[in-house]
Q: What sequence folds into this?
């Protein structure tokens, strides 16, 4: 077993058709290898259901990829939806599975209610079924609503779907029944995983609020935060690395890949500024056994 193999390419945040990614777990791991990724975390929204297929594909096709079993848990904090990635979780842990089942039920309820609201607003009674089809067997998220609105030419981009219909300021929005940050961290750590605050710069928080979030996340037992993402500018990355040091959080990185597109790719432009502790510093990897 090797730790911290130099030159290892990590991508510790990605999605499959088990939630709102468009590639199957099998296709995602194949793509990760093509992109030169050595260590990939699959972190679907509130579900572990994509991991088995990914693992089987790696084994059957003997892909040179280390798979980190992960999950991205939605939480409620001060009226915001804050995402926490659990890395290296034990997929057989009962308490984690119970929490994810509750979260998935909240997800289904919210999707039905939002589809009802939006269906009325747009006079499209079939909207729930259409969005449900977008999600297939996977967990339903607002990304599926956004894709439906784009396909129907009701918006001209996914961003616009959130800006015009799906964001918390709009009438169709439904407050979800997510767990607290503390509950998510406890379930992740209880299953042997590491709790990572996902994409801290993407919540649109003012500096004071962001610092409060980082402090409370740390106090609740959070261990790491995402510092690097492929689309961010250098200032943002350096600032996040500073926060990680200040709040004594390990540093993680990930593309948050959902679908192939020109501006975002698995493993692309992911590096950590020096000085901090990478989230993988104490991992034994499957790369060089
Ligand atoms: P939910 O978990 O149901 O609240 O859905 C959140 C998901 O919607 C995120 O994981 C993203 O995949 C997607 N999303 C959120 N904001 C945007 C945005 N502005 N543009 C495109 N996708 C977004
Ligand atoms: Mn998503
Ligand atoms: Mn997220
Ligand atoms: Mn994500």
A:
């Amino acid at each position: 077993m090797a730790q911290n193999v130099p030159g290892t390419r990590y991508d510790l945040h990605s999605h499959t058709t088990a939630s709102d990614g468009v590639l199957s777990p099998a296709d995602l791991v194949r793509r990760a290898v093509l992109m030169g990724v050595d260590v990939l975390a699959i972190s679907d929204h509130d579900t572990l259901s994509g991991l088995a297929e990914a693992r089987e594909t790696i084994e059957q096709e003997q892909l040179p990829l280390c798979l980190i079993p992960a999950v991205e848990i939605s939480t409620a904090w001060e009226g915001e939806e804050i995402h926490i990635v659990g890395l290296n979780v034990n997929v057989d842990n009962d308490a984690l599975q119970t929490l994810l089942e509750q979260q998935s039920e909240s997800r289904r309820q919210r999707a039905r209610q939002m589809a009802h609201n939006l269906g009325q607003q747009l006079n499209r009674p079939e909207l729930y079924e259409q969005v449900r089809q977008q999600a297939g067997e996977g967990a339903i998220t607002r990304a599926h609503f956004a894709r439906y609105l784009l396909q129907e030419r009701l918006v001209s981009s996914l961003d616009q779907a959130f800006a015009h219909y799906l964001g918390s300021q709009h009438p169709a929005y439904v407050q979800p029944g997510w767990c607290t940050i503390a509950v998510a961290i406890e379930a992740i750590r209880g299953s042997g995983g590491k709790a990572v605050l996902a994409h801290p710069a993407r919540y649109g928080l003012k500096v004071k609020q962001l610092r409060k979030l980082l402090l409370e996340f740390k106090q609740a037992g959070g261990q790491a935060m995402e510092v690097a993402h492929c689309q961010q500018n250098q200032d943002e990355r350096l600032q996040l690395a500073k926060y990680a040091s200040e709040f004594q959080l390990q540093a993680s990185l990930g593309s948050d890949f959902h679908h192939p597109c020109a501006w975002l790719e698995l493993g692309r432009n992911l590096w950590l500024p020096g000085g901090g502790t990478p989230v993988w510093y104490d991992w034994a990897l499957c790369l060089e056994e």
Summary: The mean pLDDT is 95. The chain is about 40% helix and 15% strand.
